[in-house]
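Example for tutorial group B:
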């Protein structure tokens, strides 16, 4: 990696089981994980813009990861161009390279998945499904393009609505199918982490389940939408609903319950990636970004046991901690590396 955030340029050979990176806050622990997984969907998992990832004073960054194939990406801040190379060959489209590097990050910030608005949960679904559902990236791209153009299309509005309905139905079907497949497993994880009430997950759509229904809804809302300059129906308005004991978790849950649900979502994400195998068949990398910091002892132990299960199946585990201390299970047995002022040492 070169010129990435505050990290010193380095060519690191990472231990096969993973490692624990120890260092004080602000010295680059999370940036290391960010660089490690940047090649998954070629975006920061923290939501940062590419230009914000460039080290101060540099003109761009370069990161490279070795999965089944080598994935390298360079970003030029001056031209805002991104160049991706897979196995030594330039990728013509980003979609060709998505999913070769695959991983899941658990961190205290994940609570926003549960306590935040629907946009957070839609992004969770979109990133995950882009990795495991063939054609999802293309359908999502078409849908977003149609949303941008519909309300200023003039006489072509019906054509953009047809594209919206077609691509939107594919997006909604993939999201709904995932939710139905993994709802029970999400509940099992919540119970394993310590929740006694029933935890439920479902995809909430506004009566736009099929292409025909979405097309009809767009036509009904056309006059109002054109007047206000926005599209009011479709998958970009849907949500992944999380309930606990039959109540909306985002509204009625406690901070501890939010953390439990967020961990369960990330573990389901890891299992989804492990089940589908992606393009390489390899298990996903599991990254724990100070993940045990805000957990009580019981939740920490249960999360450690679940991480052990993934590690035993062969997932690499990378954990960041501010100082040496008690870490559960497989994490405590990993090699310990240190970071200071962006410099990583084994």
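The residue assignment follows.
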């Amino acid at each position: 990696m070169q010129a990435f955030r505050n990290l010193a340029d380095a060519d690191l050979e990472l231990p096969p089981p993973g490692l624990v990176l120890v260092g004080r806050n602000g010295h680059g622990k999370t940036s290391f994980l960010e660089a490690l997984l940047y090649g998954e969907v070629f975006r920061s998992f923290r939501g940062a813009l590419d230009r914000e990832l460039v080290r101060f004073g540099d003109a761009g960054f370069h990161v490279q990861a070795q999965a089944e194939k080598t994935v390298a990406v360079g970003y030029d801040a001056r031209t805002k161009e991104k160049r991706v190379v897979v196995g030594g060959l330039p990728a013509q489209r980003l979609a060709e390279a998505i999913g070769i590097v695959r991983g899941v990050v658990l961190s205290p910030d994940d609570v926003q998945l549960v306590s935040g608005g629907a946009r957070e949960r839609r992004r969770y679904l979109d990133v995950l499904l882009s990795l495991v559902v063939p054609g999802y990236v293309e359908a999502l791209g078409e849908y977003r393009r149609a949303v941008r153009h519909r309300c200023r299309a003039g006489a072509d509005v019906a054509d953009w609505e047809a594209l919206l309905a077609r691509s939107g139905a594919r997006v909604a079907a993939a999201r709904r199918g995932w939710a139905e497949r993994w709802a029970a497993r999400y509940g099992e994880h919540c119970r394993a982490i310590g929740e006694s009430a029933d935890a439920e997950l479902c995809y909430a759509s506004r009566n736009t389940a099929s292409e025909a229904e979405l097309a009809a809804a767009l036509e009904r809302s056309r006059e109002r939408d054109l007047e206000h300059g926005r599209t009011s129906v479709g998958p970009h308005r849907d949500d992944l609903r999380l309930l606990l004991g039959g109540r909306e978790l985002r509204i009625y849950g406690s901070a501890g319950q939010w953390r439990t649900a967020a961990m369960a979502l990330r573990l389901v994400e890891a299992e989804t990636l492990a089940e589908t195998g992606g393009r390489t068949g390899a298990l996903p990398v599991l990254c724990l970004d100070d993940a045990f910091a805000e957990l009580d002892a019981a939740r920490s132990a249960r999360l450690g046991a679940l991480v052990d299960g993934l590690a035993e199946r062969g997932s690499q585990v990378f954990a960041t901690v501010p100082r040496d201390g008690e870490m559960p299970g497989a994490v405590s047995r990993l090699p310990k590396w240190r970071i200071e002022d962006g410099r990583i040492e084994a």
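The chain has a mean pLDDT of 91. Compare this with the pattern of hydrophobic and polar residues in the output above.
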